[in-house]
User: What shape does this take?
Amino acid sequence: MARRGSYAKGVAKREEILTAALDVIARNGYRRTSVRELADAVGLSQAGLLHYFSSKEELFREILRKRDEVDMANYGVDVGESIEGLLSLVAHNSEVPGLVQLYAQVSTEAAGDPDHPSHAYFIERYGTIRGAFAEVIRTEQHAGRLGADIDPDTTAALAVAVIDGLQTQWMLDPSFDMVDHLRSFWYLVTRTG
Amino acid sequence: MTTETTAERRGRGRPRGAYAKTEQKRAEILEGALAVFAKGGYRAGSLREIAGEVGMSEAGLLHHFPNKQSLLAAVLDLRDQHSLELVPIESDDPFETLNGLVALARYNASVPGVVELYCTLSAEATTPGHPAHEYFVGRYEYTIRNLTRTFEHCAERGLLRAGARPSSAAKATVALMDGLQVQWLLDRDSVDMAEELDTYLRGIVDLDGT
Assistant: This one.
């Protein structure tokens, strides 16, 4: 019979691993962070760490999920309120290149392969984000702050795509100003300003 | 002393049709390389895997391409040539270029393998030192430089929306095309790449204007 405390301890340890991973990857970059390094950061052996995750793919997916959780906690309300909130989050991303890189690699790897263990996760994530954007647009339209002629779903997909694509250009050239171009894009596409 | 034609010279010492066979084999290898690199990225893909994909030995493959890097370069080169055929990006007629981009997006929806290749490769290659890093840096610079010119031409004709900066529009357009590809790869029904691009372009350029 499993000891009652061990489930809670397992969950807590997973959380500790994921939080540490966010920090280590943000600092060192994705390619320079090995599973061993992550294990060291939380006082586990490599095998010990992988005991908490069924695969490396699951580990990276959970790291990204944790990242979203932290970002929503820090920026979520602002993102829902106005474009400037979203721009703050994008600005923040330029401070954690390792995580941006991790996201880009894992998402593109999972995108093309329906059998990839994280394929469904990313489908869900994009669906949720597109939906959230569309809601913001509808709210703004109802409040009369955005024109009724803008299609919320199309515009949401465009915005999500541009954010991803601007990150690629930024990764190739860290002097690239993601926020500036995203802001221009948004005001043009929503026909404001 | 007789003079030989090139065809006669080529025919000497080689079985007839060998040139065509070599070209065909080379094309098959490029297809195999595209499939392998698209699925797992460049780093993980091996010559052995590609050789296996094409049904030849690694040694046989090396007769055509000396190493993995030259194989990648050849795959990218081939795809670039094709893209340029669809998108006259250096054209002085901005409509030709912009409509070409939409045509490219439409075409891409028929070649998920190619889309996958560029998505996985461009993400992988953002780290400096990656064999394809310089290629992507150059490709983005070239594309954005030319698209900026395209939007400047639109502006000159009074067809670019007020407030749109040509260089920013160029960067956003490229970003858009890249980002839509990832969403499309994940879920084909979630976005129509050509439609979305067309909607965006029509929002900032009067595409029906003369």
